[in-house]
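Is flavin-adenine dinucleotide placement plausible here? Inputs below.
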Amino acid sequence: MSTFSLDPGPDQIAVRDWLHGFAADVIRPAAAEWDEREETPWPVIQEAAKIGIYSLDFYAQQYFDPSGVGIPIAMEELFWGDAGIGLSIVGTTLAAVAVLANGTEEQIGTWAPQMFGTPDDVKVAAFCSSEPDAGSDVSALRTRAVYDEAKDEWVLNGTKTWATNGGIASVHVVVATVDPALGARGQASFVVPPGTPGLSQGQKFKKHGIRASHTAEVVLDGVRVPGHCLLGGKEKLDERLARARERAAGGASAGSKGKNAAMATFEASRPAVGAQAIGIARAAYEVALDYARTRVQFGRPIIDNQGVAFQLADMKTRIDAARLLVWRASWMAANNQPFTSAEGSMSKLYAGETAKYVTAQAMQILGGNGFTREYPVERMHRDSAIYTIFEGTSEIQRLVIARAISGMPIR
Ligand SMILES: Cc1cc2nc3c(=O)[nH]c(=O)nc-3n(C[C@H](O)[C@H](O)[C@H](O)COP(=O)(O)OP(=O)(O)OC[C@H]3O[C@@H](n4cnc5c(N)ncnc54)[C@H](O)[C@@H]3O)c2cc1C
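Reply from A.M.:
I modeled the complex. Tokens:
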């Protein structure tokens, strides 16, 4: 068994410093503009693509880094620069991970490169699971996928919501139900290739934070995709459905093995989202620390007051604690350790709550300035709020942890 270590090693430190340079020189200076414009920052994504940060290769390298913490380190640095731009740069990976996790080698080879495009012609991808009536309850999806055997095509109908890059993506990955009676076990994922008729963008949401990241509804109206767009292939789906039906008929919970595999995937991906939240928290903490050192009231810097200094001490402590949880969970995933206490969910829960807490404290330390758009902490506070909502709300993380530690079907 490998020994738990928090030393990322020299290669990873070099990557971190390189990413930090990009975040400081390119992302941070552009943050306020794209937040106000509420548009996808294509020129910044292109810059990232030119130097290799926006590519499948880059994320694969970080994922397979032997330290186990390549992905959280990358996420923290990019989101330290800005969360809205950060999500515009890494949003494609949501769809890419779905293809990597469920697709055949041929599907990965075909679709993953199309999701990113090329540095001269960058593309983004979207992962469409959530629906108006299926958010936390992913088993309630209504989007239907029906097989047209004569044409070897799947026909998709339904409305997806909250899709990051939805409608502006080249490739959309859509989760749909093939057999509604089987709940989550009756679902499958489909690639919708660029330019497929019937897929359109619905409303684009005007958001509280991460405003540079595009979030929209995706409408699927008689979308026909070739049979080979079913991730994993029809044979595998048929086998999975047959097993689920057998279990359901036998009274067992339908496909608990499959459910466990899905949970393990979530546990492994949640630390990456936690790391994004830590990036925001660290950025706000640094601004607040600088401000507290230089802002003079009552003839002395405000940090001279324990009331302010202790706030900063708590902020730093929580950020470091959150990072330890994130790195532990990420290391566990890389080393195939079982998440017996839902350690991935723990890390996302704590990091998300920390980002909200730290950014609120930072605004307080900056006083009136913290409340204005002249300083970045107001934006960081708005951006942090999504981290207790998406990729599983804080309540859902607690539910997962509570079930893992108790072994009870807590509701
Ligand atoms: C900016 C943004 C980007 C997103 N990007 C994507 C994306 O790319 N792809 C995608 O598929 N989805 C995406 N989402 C959707 C996101 O994952 C959902 O918003 C999230 O899962 C919550 O679902 P909901 O909004 O329907 O809230 P609901 O599930 O309706 O929850 C409402 C409230 O009830 C609570 N609640 C619900 N069930 C329980 C329970 N059993 N116990 C206790 N409390 C409970 C929740 O915690 C929450 O506080 C995005 C969302 C946003 C806002």
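Short version: The chain has a mean pLDDT of 95.
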